[in-house]
C-alpha cells in the first residue's frame, strides 16, 4: 500500500492531509476546553451549536466553492483556504464571547467545505491508475482513523506544557504546514470548460450526482454511515460514563474499538476491491455495521452492557463504516469528467453532511429521552432503510459499456466517430443528460 507514496506529488499531498488532520484534532480538544472556560456547565450546548454550524457550513458552502473551483488555479485555491483556516485558528485564543466562537467556526468550516472536495478531487488527477488511487483512499482512511486515536493523546501531552490556548497555535501551524506542502508541488488542473452561469456551476455537481444510479446508491449508503457513526460519536461518552459508570479512560477504549475496526477495513480493502466490485463490498459493509448495531440493541435489552461488548460492537461497526466510505472516491471519480470532479466531490460532501445534520441531533435527542437500547434500535431501523434503498437504486455493473444511440446528433458529430448506435460507460454530461436505460 505504501508504494503509492513513491509519487512525489501525492506524498506531499498526503503529508499535507496528515498535518492538517493533526491540527484539526488539536482544535477539537481545545475548543471543548474553551467552551467550558466561557460557558461552564452549558459547554455542551455551545459545542452542540458549533457542531450544527459546522454541518450547515458544509451543506451550504461546498457547492458554491465548487462553482468557484472551476475558474481558479487548484493549487492557489488550496493554499489560500489553508491560510484562511490557519488565520482563524490563531484568532481563537483571543475569543472572549461565545458568539465569537460561532462566527469563527463558521469561517473555519466554510474554508474546509471549499478545501476538502477540491483536495479530494485532485488525488485521482495525480494518481490516474485506479489501483494506486484505491491505495491512496485506504491511506487517507488510515490517516483519519489514526488522527482520531492519536490527536487526543498528543493534546494531553501538550497540555502538560502549555495552556489549552496553545493548542490553537498548534492548529494554525498544522494548516500553515499543509499550505507549504501543497505549494511545493505542481498540481494538475482540469482543462478549461465552456463558460456557464453561476446557477449552472453551483448546481452542476448535484445534478450529475443525483442522475447517476451508483451515486444515488452512495447517497443511501452515506445515510447508513451517518446513522451508525452518529451513535458512536455522540453517545459513546454517555453510555460509558452514565450507563456503565466507568472512568474517562474507558471512553477512549470504546472509541479505540471503532477506530481499530475502521483501520482493519482500510488495510484489507485495496486487495479486496481488486477482486470484488465496489457495490458488493460497500453493501456488505453497510449490512455488517447495521447488523452489529441491531444485535447490540437486542443484547443490551436482555443483558447488562459491558465495556468489552461495547468495544467489540463498535469495532464491527467501524469495519462496516470504513468499508462503505473508503471506496466512495472511486465511484465519484468514475462518475465525472476531470473538469466536473470538484463539483461532484462537493456534491458528495454536501449530501453526506446533510445526512449527519439529521442524525447528530436525532441520536443525541433519542439517547436523552429513551436511552441507549431504543436509540440503537431506531438508528438500526434507519440504517436498514438506507441499505434497502441502495440495493434498489444501484444496479450492478454500472461501470460497464451501455449500448445507446444519439438520434439528436448529426452523423458527423465527433462523439459518434462515424457510428450510429455505440457502446461505452456512461458519465452524465451535455451529451448524456441521463442514463440511457432510464425513461
Automatic annotation (TrEMBL):
Its main location: membrane. It is found in: Cell membrane. InterPro entries: MFS, MFS_dom, MFS_trans_sf. Residues 405-415 have a biased composition (Basic and acidic residues). It is a multi-pass membrane protein. Residues 401-423 are annotated as: Disordered. SUPFAM superfamilies: MFS general substrate transporter. It holds the Pfam family MFS_1. The chain crosses the membrane at residues 12-36, 42-65, 167-187, 217-238, 250-269, 281-303, 309-332, 344-362, 374-394. Keywords: Cell membrane, Membrane, Transmembrane, Transmembrane helix. This is MFS transporter. It comes from Ruegeria sediminis. The lineage of its organism: Bacteria, Pseudomonadati, Pseudomonadota, Alphaproteobacteria, Rhodobacterales.
